Amino acid sequence: MIDTPQTRNQPAKEGRTGPANSHIADLVRRIRAGELRALARAISTVEDRTAESTELLKALFPFSGNAVLLGLTGSPGAGKSTLVDQVAREYRKQGKSIGIVAVDPTSPFSGGAILGDRIRMQSHHADPGIYIRSMATRGSLGGLASTTADVATVLDASGRDIVMIETVGVGQDEVDIVRLADVTIVVLVPGMGDDVQTIKAGIMEIADIFVINKADRDGAERVEREVRAMQSLAARKDDWTPPIVKTVASDETGISDLIAAIEKYRQHLQQNGRAQTRRIGNWRERITEMLRDALFQRVLQHYLSEGDATRYAAEVAEHKRDPYSLVEKIVGELGKPE
Asked: 3-class DSSP state for residue 133?
């Protein structure tokens, strides 16, 4: 199923009739039972950060932690959407259920996700075993929307075996995915200035697996040589050398090799508690981000109105006060009773 604004805005068959906790419990029950409309409603609640989103996530979290989270990142034009489509198709042949979160640029007109790349996934529209959700970045950097991790939690809790996250494709800043995914796949493509020298300062260091897509093009061998040269200069702490898989996603070439590489890395993670260590590191980063966001929202709600922000900015711009003392003052207010 492809979740679009048209499908997700349809009214639910069941209305909200009881208290918030019973409503959430019912929604969780329906999600766990595989109701796609309930899943779409839950994701919309989380993505829009409505009043009940936190309670919903609290209720769903105990059911999460079982899905394999695959992150696919790389520059625009690398063919990530086609690759995701083919990988999902291969996993479906194995009987696995799939959730796909496709993070797209934000439309300057509607503020929503630009859904053009999802056209390639239309063949899955009648398959309940694949659920596809497009998300807008809404100004977030790092290639992910600010609620992507929470949406992944909802899909995980719904019982999906594999959750695939395709980032927006922003280049060197696209590194947030490594803090969320169990396996991070960096997609390269020859002939588009997408060689190692142009992007190694950003996403090259986060790859668990490299994919050279559109490998039938001239320049694929050069990209592979450059990746191997880079790998020879620095060894990873976890004793893993990211494999390089060549694919032509448009005709399924190399997809089975990519699935095999994913499984091999997952086996590597199971040794010596590496998987748990990775998830602990990911959650440490995520909790820090959640605290930062919660504190910022509290400051905006209670200590920094729109008028105050404008006034403070004017005072700093005119050098009537320094920004460092101002921030200390606002942070100091957080510890006082409201």
From this structure: strand
Q: Could you give the CA distance from residue 177 to residue 289 in angstroms, rounded to a whole number?
A: 13
SS3 244: strand
With contact defined as beta carbons under 8 Å apart, do 156 and 31 qualify? no
- In the DSSP assignment, the letter for residue 122 is G
Burial class (CB in 10 A: 0-12, 13-18, 19+), 237: exposed
Count how many residues are written for the chain: 338
Measured N-to-C along each axis, helices 80-93 and 255-269 cross at an angle, to the nearest 10 degrees, of 80
- Tens-digit pLDDT profile for residues 72-127: 988 778 889 899 999 999 999 999 999 999 886 544 334 444 444 455 555 666 78
CA atoms 111, 152, 185, 240: torsion sign: positive
In 10 A of CB 225, how many CB atoms?
13
Which one-letter amino acid corresponds to residue 8?
R
Does pTM top 0.85 for this prediction?
A: no
Half-sphere exposure of 140 (CA within 13 A, CB side): 25
pLDDT in tens, 219-229: 999 999 988 88
Spatial separation of the C-alpha atoms in residues 242 and 328, rounded to whole Å = 44
Q: How far is residue 137's CA from residue 105's CA, in Å, rounded to a whole number? A: 6
